[in-house]
Amino acid sequence: MLAELTHSIEIGGRRLTIWLPPSYPRSNKRYPAVYIHDGGQLMLSSCNFVQMLFREGRLEELILVGISTACRTDDYSPWPAEALKEGRPSFGGHGPAYVDEIADRIKPYVDAHYRTAPEPEHTGMIGGSLGGLVTALAAYRRPDTFRRFGMLSPSFWFEGFRTFAEQSPLPSQDIRLYISAGSLEGIYKEGIQKHALSSIRDTADRWRRQALHSGQLKLHIEDEATHDLVFMARQFPEALRELYPAAALLEEPLQVRSSEFQDQNADSSRHHQRYAVPRTEVFDFSSAITGRKYRISVYPPSMPPPEEGFPVLYTVDMNAYFGSIAEAMTLQTRHPKGLKPAMIVGIGYPSDEPFVMDRRFLDLTIPANPEDLRPDGTPWPANGEAETFLDFFENEIMPMISRRYPAGSGKRSLFGHSLGGFFCLYTLMTRPYLFQTYIAGSPSIWWKDHVLFSMLEDWKCAENRPSAYPAPSVLIAIGSLEKGMMLQDAQQIYEQIKLLEGRELDRVSYHLFAEEGHVSVLHPLISRMLLFISGNAQRIT
């Protein structure tokens, strides 16, 4: 890396090598930090490639910190153990003290002297071989400080570690693990090290059984690879991508190529341009959790953010109405007496169609009953992955938005229409802590034989809302010209949800838009929604 981006310092007898990202000297932003064992040797072996990924925007820019050690067998072992062979050093078991030293001395120094994003969800650790073992120890010991862990050919064969992993559950909230190994690990070893590969597979399986979902843990087995630095270094950039997927899988922002819209009757140097909502950023995002690509639109207000960050309105079906919401936000917040500004984040699909039906059914519903058919007697399209879509929301999109934009975590809203309205109410009943306001427009309550009604009964009887989270508010809205069953369902579920107002829920509101149908209701609903989110639902401007 460039000399001006590389700093070498000493803290408590340990040499640190700190690599700063390319944009660091000319920006004021804060960057996630990753701590790397063995003096950052893995980084040194791939620094030009990582630098290229940073500069091309193919990997989120990170601060990388290499930490030296004078004795790997002491610092990287979780507890004392005998030497593997006569004449070799024994294992001192200083790993817990080493992990605490990084968490309590080294990281605070780095946070104080460099623009890191210091929160644990932004802080990672990567190591190879025994360095991978002590990284696993950190996942158990200091989840208060680190939440992203890369283990390259980790020494999980270490005496007693598999038993420890079986008996000690990992903290599952917000944790992300990347493990790589060679298919020929331990092939020429004797004794306990010959179980290198099987110990890695077994440990990964144990962690999966501890309720870590697929987006939290990835195991990669490199074919024909042995336990060597060359293969670990090859996996280092991949570990960074997997541990920071919100930007690692982020593609280039979509560009409008004006030549596609050339006015054939004008001079060849004059072009039309496609209209875009001012300040809106649009990009494609490949989810490691769902395995599918999404199109994300982000509208950040033009004014400076408040100290706590902007409120954020998340919407599904971005293709259909994101522009309308963003323009309404622009108009209604421009005056000092207008609404308070909020960010808008739209989740949609790489398509020019307003509704991408096959993807909507997949992401916004729970599995239909096998015997259920469309009104015309044909089967429903593939469906039922709302839980996975929610994992994508909670563990990829929302953390990415918090890292990249001045988004506050204390006032988030979710809006969905039709199947998106079903998804909105489903989220309320299953993960009520995710959002502080839920807006369900023309909700498809009929899905799966009106399952939301039985879910609501279960929710009323369960302690679903942790006391640490405020009671959310709910708005249900529908057009008066919609089908009778839709109107009846919306009214009925509102009446039942209303019973929870003042207890599990804060505000509960219902609005019937006169002379509006299932689609035309969207635009009048947008204004009502913005007022409701602002807490001023009675004021109409």
Describe what this molecule looks like in 3D.
With 541 residues, the protein is α/β, with parallel strands linked by helices. The chain has 16 helices and 16 strands. It has an 8-stranded mixed beta sheet with strand order 1-2-4-3-5-6-7-8, with helices on both faces. It has an 8-stranded mixed beta sheet with strand order 9-10-12-11-13-14-15-16, sandwiched between helices. Strand 1 (6-11) and strand 2 form a beta hairpin.
List the helices and strands and how they pair.
Layout: E1 6-11, E2 14-19, E3 33-36, H1 41-44, H2 47-55, E4 63-67, H3 72-75, H4 95-113, E5 123-128, H5 130-141, E6 148-152, H6 161-167, E7 176-182, H7 196-209, E8 217-222, H8 229-243, H9 245-248, E9 281-286, E10 293-299, E11 310-316, H10 318-332, E12 343-348, H11 357-364, H12 386-404, E13 407-417, H13 419-430, E14 437-441, H14 447-461, E15 473-479, H15 484-498, E16 508-513, H16 522-533
Parallel strand pairs: 3-4, 3-5, 5-6, 6-7, 7-8, 11-12, 11-13, 13-14, 14-15, 15-16
Antiparallel strand pairs: 1-2, 2-4, 9-10, 10-12
Jot down its keywords:
single chain, 541 residues, alpha/beta, eight-stranded mixed beta sheet, elongated
Low-confidence runs of at least 5 consecutive residues: 246-272, 537-541
What would you report as the Rg, rounded to the nearest angstrom?
26 Å
Main sheet overview: 8 strands, mixed
| Global morphology | elongated
Could you give the order of strands across the largest sheet?
1-2-4-3-5-6-7-8
Question: Can you count the beta strands?
Answer: 16
Question: On the 0-100 scale, what is the average pLDDT?
Answer: 86
> Which structural class matches the secondary elements?
alpha/beta
Portion of residues in helices? 25-40%
How many helices? 16
